[in-house]
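pinned: reference chain
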Amino acid sequence: MVVVLHARRGADAVRHYSAQPQGPKIVVAFTGTDVNGDLSDPDLTSSVALADAFVFLEPSAQRLADITDERPQHVIFQAVEPIDHEPSIEIGEVPGECRFAVLSHLREVKDPFRAAEAVARLPGDSKVRVLHAGAAHDETWADRARELMRDDPRYQWLGPLDRGSAMKLLERSRALILSSWSEGGANVVSEAISLGKPVIASRIPGTVGLLGSDYPGYFEAGDTAGLAEVIQRFSTDPNFEPELTRLCVGLSSLVDPDRERESWSDLISELGLSAK
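pinned: its structure tokens
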């Protein structure tokens, strides 16, 4: 069996393995690039035509089921393994602050500066602070991050971090902010859930598929004022943070590594193979 991530980007691999006599079973895992893009893309349709089974990273992606006919289809949530190394930077804390973490690279689809722009709308005495980890797509994005830091010191861009440091930052923050325009089931949401941290997120299908349609921590994608309102409520309403935390903790079984292994084992068995 071969698992190909990205129906589009993995199209050459799918064609390669499908051309082999008595070749392996081919499982195509749909990512955000696939789910939110052009479903008539030739590489995507080629991969779909040649695959033996399909994996979706969150339930809403199953709207692609119409193009996958009767072949096996499984929703497999991305699990989070424990961190096995120490962070490379010290993640300190400021007494009394209400810290939010943003863990996303600086590129268009992530709408990475929405949190910074929202914080700038908060009252001057707000104790909210946003720490942002992620690599800049190019120097233009880095320059914008530096400009935002100069304009409001409550926003700080840390640059790229190793996974241990990023997870430590999330662990020592009150919540995660995810402002993406589109996702296919963001792994950072799984990481927040695994740590019992609440999530404030743009209301997009890939994230609603993970957190549920009734989750109260959404704002509309691109809505700076809406995000500012949610941040302000989180930092001042004593009932809001516990509610979001309770809901995210209730999803912890979704990101359990044993559950992910069992899901793959079920798919392997459905293909007539052995998981041993």
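why pinned: The radius of gyration is 20 Å. The first strand starts at residue 2 and ends at 5.
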